[in-house]
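Severity: low
Component: inverse-folding endpoint
Summary: output formatting inconsistent between runs
Steps to reproduce: submit the following structure tokens with default settings.
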């Protein structure tokens, strides 16, 4: 069976959409081959326009923790739609949503709903800058926080350096207020604070990185971020857009028993619809308009259909789900590790709960410096072989794969078998 229909659609797409896709990594450029166009999805599976079935480990890049087309979410969406699709006025749904978020994340005292993770991080940083009256934002190399100008910076090597934009179209002046440090490098973070502490408005971090592949924080790293911020009057921001309700119901902050000043949420929190949120300490959130001088707004913010989907999803996040995901994750990790050893392939599996990456390098991978040594050619070859075996794995070495609650032991075992064959090639 060929991918003829996908090919034809991709040709049409490329004439009218840059690269034929609405988000770059979907183009499959990092692994070779054309993207697969999806016709429908159900549970753990994607169905392509060419009639092929794939076991999905992308999960729409994180949101689909319950699997696709979960009946409770579909019911919530259809029910909400009959009452109108958007009002631009407050609803009870939004209040319930905000209360739920504050309950799941005790560090969040007040929260605003927005429509994407990018908006959430932008707004959180604006609030932090407004609160502190400072301009400099610290991020970690290899962490992705959405496509806002001042966050598209990874900067130099070694110690923290002044920001240089990663993307064309980002003014150097904008990027110059972003300082970058290696992930897990506590000494560099402390040195940066010692040198520029009174200029730093915020530190933003992925508390488990997903956006250079799955990279967990080393012991003490997240604690050091919070401590530095506290000591120097800066705002700590956990960007849990990916990890929120993924690595635990209350995100990585629940797992690590930490309370950042602010938190950004997206992906799972929206139940598969365009919904995200940012929130945190009451005194910081009270700076947001109309209470305070920090402006932030959104025509579709708190959209009733999206919030209905979100509430339906959140209601399903029970202990049994996280126990199931942990077991599936451990099973996949063990199976892949066994295959790596059996075929004597240099690689390592890094995993936190149901997010994981097979890195084609010795590991452990603790920062972008380590990740960039991975054999991306080998990854591409492996990825193509997995695709031929019905496995829809993220099409980049530097992305995390996600398992959903709809996956079964049989799905995982089939994936391990496919991985074993793909590693033998
Ligand atoms: C996906 C992601 C974002 C951006 O969210 P969008 O909804 O794509 O704008 C921000 N931060 C992290 C950690 C993410 O994984």
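Observed output (run 2 of 3):
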């Amino acid at each position: 069976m060929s991918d003829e229909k996908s090919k034809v659609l991709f040709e049409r797409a490329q004439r009218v959409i840059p690269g034929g896709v609405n988000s770059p990594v979907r183009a499959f450029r990092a692994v070779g081959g054309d993207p697969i166009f999806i016709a429908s999805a159900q549970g753990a599976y994607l169905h392509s326009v060419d009639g092929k079935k794939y076991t999905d480990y992308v999960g729409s890049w994180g949101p689909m923790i319950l699997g696709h087309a979960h009946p409770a979410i579909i019911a919530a969406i259809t029910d909400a739609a009959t009452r109108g699709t958007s009002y631009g006025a407050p609803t009870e749904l939004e209040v319930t949503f905000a209360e739920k978020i504050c309950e799941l994340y005790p560090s969040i005292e007040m929260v605003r709903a927005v429509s994407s993770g990018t908006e959430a991080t932008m707004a959180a940083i604006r609030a932090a800058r407004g609160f502190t009256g400072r301009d400099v934002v610290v991020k970690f190399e290899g962490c992705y926080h959405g496509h806002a100008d001042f966050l598209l910076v990874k900067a130099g090597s070694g110690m923290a350096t002044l920001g240089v934009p990663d993307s064309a179209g980002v003014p150097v002046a904008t990027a110059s207020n972003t300082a970058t440090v290696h992930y897990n490098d506590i000494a560099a973070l402390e040195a940066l604070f010692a040198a520029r502490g009174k200029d730093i408005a915020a530190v933003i971090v992925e508390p488990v990185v997903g956006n250079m592949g799955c990279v967990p924080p080393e012991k003490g790293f997240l604690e050091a971020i919070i401590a530095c911020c506290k000591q120097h009057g800066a705002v700590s921001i956990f960007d849990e857009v990916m990890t929120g309700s993924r690595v635990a119901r209350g995100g990585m902050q629940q797992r690590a028993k930490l309370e950042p000043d602010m938190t950004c949420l997206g992906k799972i929190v929206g139940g598969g619809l365009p919904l995200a949120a940012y929130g945190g300490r009451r005194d910081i959130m009270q700076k947001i308009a109309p209470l305070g001088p920090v402006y932030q707004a959104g025509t579709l913010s708190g959209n009733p259909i999206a919030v209905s989907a979100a509430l339906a999803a959140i209601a399903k996040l029970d202990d049994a789900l996280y126990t199931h995901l942990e077991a599936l994750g451990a099973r996949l990790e063990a199976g892949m590790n066994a295959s790596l050893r059996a075929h004597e392939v240099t690689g390592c599996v890094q995993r936190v709960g149901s997010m994981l990456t097979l890195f084609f390098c010795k590991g452990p991978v603790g920062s972008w410096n380590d990740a960039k040594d991975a054999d991306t050619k080998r990854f591409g070859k492996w990825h193509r072989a997995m695709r031929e075996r019905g496995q829809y794995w993220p099409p980049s070495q530097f992305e995390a794969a996600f398992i959903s609650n709809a996956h079964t032991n049989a799905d995982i075992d089939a994936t391990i078998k496919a991985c074993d064959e793909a590693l033998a090639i």
